[in-house]
Amino acid sequence: MYGQFCGNENKMRLTAIGKRIIVEDTMIMKTHPIASIIIVAVIFLGHSSHHAADLGDLSPLTSWDKVARGVWRAEMGDLENEIRYSDLAAAPPRLKALNTLSNAAFPFTSKNISFHLDSSEKVMVRIPTDEDETLYGFGLQLDGIKHSRKVMTLNVDHWSKGGGRTHAPVPFYISSKGYGVFFNTARFLKIYNQVGNRKDSLRNPPEVDRNPPSDEPQQGPWLAQPPGDAVEAQVNSPGLELIVFSGNSILEVVAAV
Q: Which of 72, 109, 161, 184 has the smallest number of CB atoms closer than 10 Å to its CB?
């Protein structure tokens, strides 16, 4: 069902190759002007199509439909021709059984889930997390069930024991805060779990010198992997459906799924 998420990676790799040729092989560039034009075009396309959305570019996801007790769904973009993960299920959801569970509250009332639709048919969704929050799940991952502060590529593969590339990944995770999130797509999925990779995040640690002089005190320690404040998922698709589960315990969230 899943395969390698490599569209942007290929463009970035070509961009890097183009830069190296321009810097190191100037004689070749002078000899082959057509090659120069091609490589410059590749660099331009790579940069223009790989623009990451700033937080100010995101839109709040506010149109939620309550499917059953403790279950909500929302759509982003165009899903008319999309194959959802749930379309491949052997049976429809058992709504009667779901409505026997507790009527838990929606878990994102104080912090909105947000999203961005790219002009090149890419969707990015951002799900806020707390500092003391831990994430579990994503199907069969042979490096354990805890996946906070990781970057994962969900696709069917025997690449390694973890990182998303296993023979049974699932686009679903559970939070220690008592909710679960399901990315209802059959496409390849790239997920950044609480990874501090945004300069415009409001929860970044203070900027410090990694090797400061002894007479210059710093505001805090240098962090190789600063904690992030959200889960961000990216998919090459014109649209995406998100399903949120909530319960009075993690066990109840698992039972709902």
A: 109
Distances (CA, A) of 244 to 74, 108, 196, 248: 9, 9, 23, 14
Q: Are residues 42 and 113 in the same domain?
A: no
pLDDT (0 to 100) of residue 54: 87
The most confident of the ranges 129-143, 212-226, 236-250 is: 236-250
Structural domain range at position 33:
7-49
Number of independent structural domains in the chain: 2
The pLDDT score that the predictor gives to residue 38 is 53
Residue 238: CATH number of its domain: 2.60.40.1760
Residues 169 and 124 in one domain: yes
Q: What is the mean pLDDT of residues 133-139?
A: 91
Residue pair 173/136 in contact by the 8 Å Cβ criterion:
yes
For residue 202, what are the CA distances in angstroms to 199, 227, 229?
9, 12, 9
DSSP strand pairing (165-166 vs 150-156): parallel
The rounded distance, in Å, linking the Cα atoms of 251 and 102 is 12
Per the listing, tokens 């686009």 go with 171
Asked whether the CA dihedral 255, 73, 181, 81 is positive or negative, the reply is positive
When pLDDT is cut at 50, 70 and 90, the band that residue 209 belongs to is confident
pTM above 0.85, yes or no: no
